[in-house]
Amino acid sequence: MHVVLLSGSPSQRSRGELLLDYARDYLERRGIAVSLIRVRDFAAEELLHARFDSAAVRDLQAAVGLADGLIVATPVYKASFSGALKVLLDLLPERVLSDKVVLPVVSGGSPAHLLAVDYALKPVLSALKAQEVLTGVFAVDAQIAYPEGEQPARFADELVERLDESLDDLLAALIRRSGSLEVRLPHDRSEHVRRSL
Ligand SMILES: Cc1cc2nc3c(=O)[nH]c(=O)nc-3n(C[C@H](O)[C@H](O)[C@H](O)COP(=O)(O)O)c2cc1C
């Protein structure tokens, strides 16, 4: 099983990517292969001139096409998701998400824009024919502390709880859709996943 983590933040120091690091660790510990694709790793011309034939864009299309699941992370920009992520999603084939499960992860400065996930991001995922879009996680900046020195990134307990629940849901959906029982379920969370199947 393979999950693509898509980071839609143009920032070098991205809170959303810290959430994706957490998700990577969660999934890899359960035997799921993960790869990270960041919007800021693309050349601006590839995105702005919609270079469908560039090697990087073809690699993106192939990686997303082959994935079983996606976690799409984005900051809230002007009450919506980032324009850079939109440009990247525009480069994907129309039905690319038709057999996939997608977990949106959004971070914003204020909870006032919590609904950006539902009103802005989910319709675009639907346009790409995402078969299953999970509820998603919204984090406010105050819940995320950047790593400092030896100190790793820290998240508010309430955020960790919601992340774990959403990742459990993603894992359950991946297992259900593949019919596979190869995924390692740590004892403490196995009950929740079984209940969700
Ligand atoms: C250009 C810009 C626009 C933003 N607009 C909003 C906004 O409308 N609502 C909000 O809650 N936060 C807004 N923010 C704050 C970011 O969404 C927030 O800091 C987010 O966690 C950044 O994620 P990142 O570190 O992964 O890039 C904005 C930040 C920037 C730089």
From TrEMBL:
<dbReference type="Pfam" id="PF03358">
    <property type="entry name" value="FMN_red"/>
</dbReference>
<comment type="similarity">
    <text>Belongs to the SsuE family.</text>
</comment>
<dbReference type="GO" id="GO:0046306">
    <property type="term" value="P:alkanesulfonate catabolic process"/>
</dbReference>
<dbReference type="GO" id="GO:0016655">
    <property type="term" value="F:oxidoreductase activity, acting on NAD(P)H, quinone or similar compound as acceptor"/>
</dbReference>
<dbReference type="GO" id="GO:0008752">
    <property type="term" value="F:FMN reductase [NAD(P)H] activity"/>
</dbReference>
<keyword id="KW-0288">FMN</keyword>
<keyword id="KW-0560">Oxidoreductase</keyword>
<feature type="domain" description="NADPH-dependent FMN reductase-like">
    <location>
        <begin position="1"/>
        <end position="142"/>
    </location>
</feature>
<keyword id="KW-0285">Flavoprotein</keyword>
<dbReference type="InterPro" id="IPR051814">
    <property type="entry name" value="NAD(P)H-dep_FMN_reductase"/>
</dbReference>
<dbReference type="InterPro" id="IPR020048">
    <property type="entry name" value="NADPH-dep_FMN_reduc_SsuE"/>
</dbReference>
<protein>
    <submittedName>
        <fullName>FMN reductase</fullName>
    </submittedName>
</protein>
<dbReference type="InterPro" id="IPR005025">
    <property type="entry name" value="FMN_Rdtase-like_dom"/>
</dbReference>
<dbReference type="InterPro" id="IPR029039">
    <property type="entry name" value="Flavoprotein-like_sf"/>
</dbReference>
